[in-house]
């Protein structure tokens, strides 16, 4: 996950409406739980937590959590608090520990000495406010710096990372950032399983002029076993120079289709079919990720439309109409069933799947969703 994110909004009311918390009053809350009128200094500090384009580890981040008072929490009361990004466990004696604990792997929470004591307690769970985050893409030229890309949700709307937080008595006021003698700190959660990219190397080599190392039967079986063990929903096959010599990709595609008939397979030479390895591989991966979603969506449209319009009258099942629509090779003139026409258009004329436009290529073949 990311090591930098943004919180660019400066509208405290927008934050209050989105997360049901009065920002200024909440940040003014004293250690005893009383909420005096917000001072100018506190309002200024609340505003300093917003309008930020490069939030980095060890800096203060704006969080929202249930009120630490159990009775208030039971009534749905929330509080906002500035916390230091980088968890510092209560047993740690040095703030440098926080540099290594800016994020927490969800699958390791219950076995971690630092996180396990926090998971089951509501006062240690929080939201970390953001409206974007950065990821870095490696340049093709290794001498060039990595290029940052900012990702947003719904065009830049506020969202939140799930977080675990705690507090620790700390004497140095500059480190604490608050006035009640405690150092509040937080780490955000992320998952590796389910969304992690799994790569399987194929023991072959294709050069621009043809095969340098053939893909033998033993090597092919090795790849199939590794892919099957990962239990994927979709597979992207991306081999070097497949745009010119797709023989190995085709062999892998056919073998995968036979071994895993219910798994969607995207082949890079079909998705893009042009030179530039990175763009071709990236587009194929996106195509593999989105094509099952598109197919599921189209299936649902056809099933609902067929059930409403054709099932009772013709005796055909929704699945019959789905198969007929996907296997039709020409669109023709749309009939009265706009849903079936939509599937025909999306299933036959869509250029190599939902990711085709990302490569900016024009010489694309059609996406055929003929297997059901």
Overview in brief:
The protein is an alpha+beta fold. The chain has helices at 12-19, 23-28, 40-48, 70-74, 116-119, 173-176, 217-230, 247-259, 268-271, 277-309, 311-314, 318-327, 338-349, and strands at residues 5-7, 52-55, 60-66, 78-85, 103-105, 125-130, 132-137, 147-151, 159-169, 182-190, 205-207, 210-213, 234-237, 264-267.
What does this molecule look like?
The protein is α+β, with helices and mostly antiparallel strands and 372 residues long. It folds into 2 domains: 5-190, hypothetical protein yedk fold (Alpha-Beta Complex), CATH 3.90.1680.10; 205-359, no CATH class. Helices cover 34% and strands 21% of the residues. The chain has 13 helices and 14 strands. Strand 11 and strand 12 form a beta hairpin. The longest helix has 33 residues, at 277-309.
CATH superfamily (homologous) name of the largest domain: SOS response associated peptidase-like
- Uncertain runs are 328-372
Radius of gyration: 27 Å
Indicate how many domains the architecture comprises: 2
Q: First CA to last CA: what distance?
A: 36 Å
The strand count comes to 14
For the record, the CATH architecture of the largest domain stands as Alpha-Beta Complex
Indicate the overall shape: elongated
Q: Name the CATH class of the largest domain.
A: Alpha Beta
Largest sheet: 5 strands, mixed, barrel
Q: Helical percent range? A: 25-40%
Order of strands, widest sheet: 3-4-10-9-6
Order of helices and strands: EHHHEEHEEHEEEEHEEEHEHEHHHHH
């Amino acid at each position: 996950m990311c090591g930098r994110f943004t919180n660019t909004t400066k509208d405290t009311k927008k934050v209050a409406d989105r997360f049901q918390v009065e920002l200024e009053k909440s940040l003014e809350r004293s250690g005893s739980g009383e909420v005096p009128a917000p001072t100018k200094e506190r309002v200024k500090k609340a505003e300093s937590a917003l309008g930020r384009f490069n939030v980095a580890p060890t800096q203060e981040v704006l969080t929202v959590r249930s009120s630490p008072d159990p009775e208030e929490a039971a009534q749905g009361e929330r509080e906002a608090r500035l916390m230091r990004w980088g968890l510092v466990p209560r047993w740690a004696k040095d703030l440098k520990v926080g540099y290594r604990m800016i994020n927490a792997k969800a699958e390791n929470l219950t076995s971690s000495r630092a996180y396990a004591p926090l998971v089951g307690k509501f006062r240690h769970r929080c939201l970390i406010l953001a409206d974007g985050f950065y990821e870095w893409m490696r340049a093709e030229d290794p001498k060039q710096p990595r290029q940052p890309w900012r990702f947003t949700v719904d065009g830049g709307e506020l969202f939140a990372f799930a977080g675990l937080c705690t507090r620790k008595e700390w004497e140095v006021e500059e480190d604490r950032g608050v006035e009640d003698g405690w150092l509040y700190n937080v780490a955000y959660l992320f998952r590796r399983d389910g969304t992690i990219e799994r790569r399987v190397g194929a023991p072959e080599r294709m050069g621009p002029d043809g095969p340098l190392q053939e893909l033998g039967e033993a090597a092919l079986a090795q790849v199939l076993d590794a892919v099957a063990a990962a239990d994927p929903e979709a597979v992207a096959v991306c081999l070097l120079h497949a745009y010119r010599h797709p023989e190995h990709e085709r062999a892998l595609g056919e073998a995968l289709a036979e071994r895993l008939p219910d798994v969607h397979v995207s082949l890079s030479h079909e998705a893009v079919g042009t030179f530039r390895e990175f763009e071709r591989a990236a587009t194929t991966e996106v195509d593999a990720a989105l094509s099952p979603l598109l197919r599921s969506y189209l299936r649902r449209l056809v099933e609902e439309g067929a059930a409403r319009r054709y099932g009772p009258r013709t005796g055909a099942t929704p699945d019959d109409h789905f198969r007929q629509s996907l296997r039709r090779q020409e669109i023709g003139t749309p009939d009265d069933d706009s849903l079936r026409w939509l599937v025909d258009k999306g299933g036959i004329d869509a250029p190599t799947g939902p990711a085709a436009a990302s490569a900016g290529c024009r010489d694309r073949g059609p996406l055929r969703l003929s297997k059901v």
